[in-house]
Every structure is written in C-alpha cells, then in structure tokens.
Amino acid sequence: MAEVRLDGRPPARALPDEERSTLDALLQLSERRAVRWLLLFLFAWLVLGLLDHTGIGEKQIKEDELNFVGRFALDLAFDMGPAFDPGSRDGHPDHLFQAVAIVNWGFAALLALAITVNFWLISRIPDFVRAFQQGSRAGRRTESPLPFAIQVGVMWAELLGLFIWFFVSFDLDFAFIEERTPHLIGLELHDGFLQGAALTLFICIVSIVASTILALIAALARLSSNGAAFGVATFYTSFFRGTPLLLQLVLIYSGLPQLGVVIDALTAGIIAVSLCYGAYMAEIFRAGILAIPKGQSEAAASLGLTKGRTMQLIVLPQAMRLIIPPTGNQFIAMLKDSSLVSVLGAWELMYLARTHGRSEFKVMEMLIVAALIYWGLSFVFEMIQARIEKKYGKGVRVD
User: Fold this and answer.
1) How far apart are CA 15 and CA 47, in angstroms?
2) Judging by beta carbons within 10 Å of its beta carbon (0-12, 13-18, 19+), is residue 308 exposed, middle or buried?
3) Binning pLDDT at 50, 70 and 90, where does residue 191 land?
4) Which CB contacts under 8 angstroms, 24+ apart, belong to 375-378?
5) Per-residue pLDDT reduced to its tens digit, 70-79
6) For 52, which DSSP code?
7) What is the pTM of this model?
8) Of 163, 270, 355, 391, which residue is most buried, by most CB within 10 angstroms?
9) DSSP state at residue 193
C-alpha cells in the first residue's frame, strides 16, 4: 500500500541504499578530529592563498621596498629558467607571475599550518588542565570553567597581539597621539559644551531614550485595531527603515528650515538617529509582544485587568527577555552610526578625528584613536546589556 501523507503531498523520495551508505560514511568521517583539522587547514590555505603576501609591483622592485616574501619570490623568478633576461630586473621578469604564485601558496600553507596547530594546542588546554588538577582532586572528575576561561583568554591575547602589531606597522607618531587623545575623548569643552567622545555619548544616550519611546508607541500602534494609528506606524517604519540614515540627517537638517523650522546640527542629528532606530526597534518590540501567548492576556482580562494594565504587568515583563538582546545590539549600532552626525558639523568624535588628523597630516593616528574609543564605549554597552539580560533572564535559564 502506497504511503500517504496527512497534508496530501506525495511522500519524500527515500535515498537509495548506496547513496545512504555513502552519506553515512561521509558523516562518520567528518566526526573524526583529524579530518576536522585537515578541513580547517585546507580552508585557511585556500583563503590565505588568494591574498598577495609578496607585495610585488614595479615601484616596489625599482625602489627596493619588498618584504622578505617578495624578495624570495623575486629571487626565485631569476632562478626559474635560462630564458630569463637579468637585464629586466627593474621591470617584470618573465617568470615573475609563476614565482609569485608559488611563493604565495607556499607561504599561505605555512600560515595555515600555524593557524591549525595553534587551534589544536588551544583545544588541548582542557586536557592539560584536567591532568594538572587530577592529583589535587583525588581522582574525582568534576567539571570546571577554568579550561574554557583559559581558552578564551589565550585567544583574546593572540588576537589582541595581532591587533597591536597591525597598528604598530603603520609607523605611528605616538607623541602626537598622546597630545591629541584628550581632545578626542572630550576632556575639554568647546564653546561651553561637550565635544569628542563625550558629545558622541550624549547623542547616543538621548537618542536611546527617544528611540525607545518611539519604538514602543509605534509597536503598540501596529498592534492596534485603529486604522489611522496602524497607517501612521506602518508609514513611519517603512520610510525610516527604507532610507539611509545619512539621507535622513541631510533631509532633517536642510529640509526643516524650508518650513521655517531652524535647528542646529546637534538637534538634527539626535532627531534623525532617534527616528531611524525607533523604526527598527519598533519591529523588535512588536515581535517580542507577539511572542507572548494570547492566553495570558485573556486570563488577565478574566481577572478584570484593563488592556493597559495587562500590557504593563503581564506582557511587557515577559517580552523584555526577548526584546533586550536585539535592542542592545541596536544601541551599539547607534553608538557607531552617530558618527554620521559629523557631516553636519557637530564636534563629535569622528569630526574631531578627521579635523585633527588633517591639520597635521596624521589621519591614521587619529582614526586609530577614534576606533579604540568607539570600541571601548561599545564594550561598556555590551557589559550593561549583559547585566540587564542576566536580570530579566532569572528563572528562565535551565542549566
């Protein structure tokens, strides 16, 4: 008797025994650690091999500005065949492209091997820690968070080291950085008001409060049965989610004066950022509210609670557990997008970084300082978000 599905559609075609056995064999093979390390090596080799590690160009050859990989590739090109003319050393040798390809893929293989060995060593940390703790615990086998913490710490230290090496390679002027960093942080006032990172933080905090209020109102309007409220909310979210923030900044700053409303750059920036992120957060709020079962609202109504009290006491406290994580991400993105306010002339962090950098032709130094300040502020926001998530997640997490 033919198999019949409840939804009326034909049954899915079963895999033949040969294909099933091949698939099972591949799955079992992928579970072996050696195969996983091999796949990691091949993936890293493929990605790194597509990069140019030699830095060879006609200018670099003539001015002798090659790194050790480029010098090795150039020497290899001279030794690849008698058809090569040594007199063309200042140009592009006949075998240069082949030599560059060989050296690139060879150097990429060494880097991929180093990456694979590094990950393998880090993966062995739990075994090393357990072996070290075995004697002190008298044979008891207990789970400890220490190996995981060591793995994370080692990985962070390695990546931070690469991060520092990358920036130091720019031959930075650290005296200039030390002199101008207080201005970028905003330790001094400009015309009696904030500037730099302090102004960026002010824009972000005010926009967070305003966008949260707008998002909640828009979300409730989208959930209401009032056609006018629903129309306004959908138009608002559609426009501000469908246009770039930079365009909204220019429209508000340059468009409102056409209507007789003149505002400064700071006010225009706060309005634009609040409206833009309020539209995105409105959908987050709406999704969080809809995730709460309707039965709870019905039970609250049977107890005599009004819709407002039900939303305040029943729905929103539970929805916050779903709303906070994506909303926290929006706040961090808002912190970074506030740099667009600099196009209006507001003396926030990005504006000062460009201004101080151009004045002394040290743009890279100021951009790196600005990046570190943004990263530090984002890290603080992440910590606050984690604390709030922990508070609202009590009684939910199951260990």
Assistant:
1) 34
2) exposed
3) confident
4) 377/197, 377/200, 377/201, 377/335, 378/332, 378/335, 378/336
5) 888 877 877 7
6) -
7) 0.77
8) 270
9) B
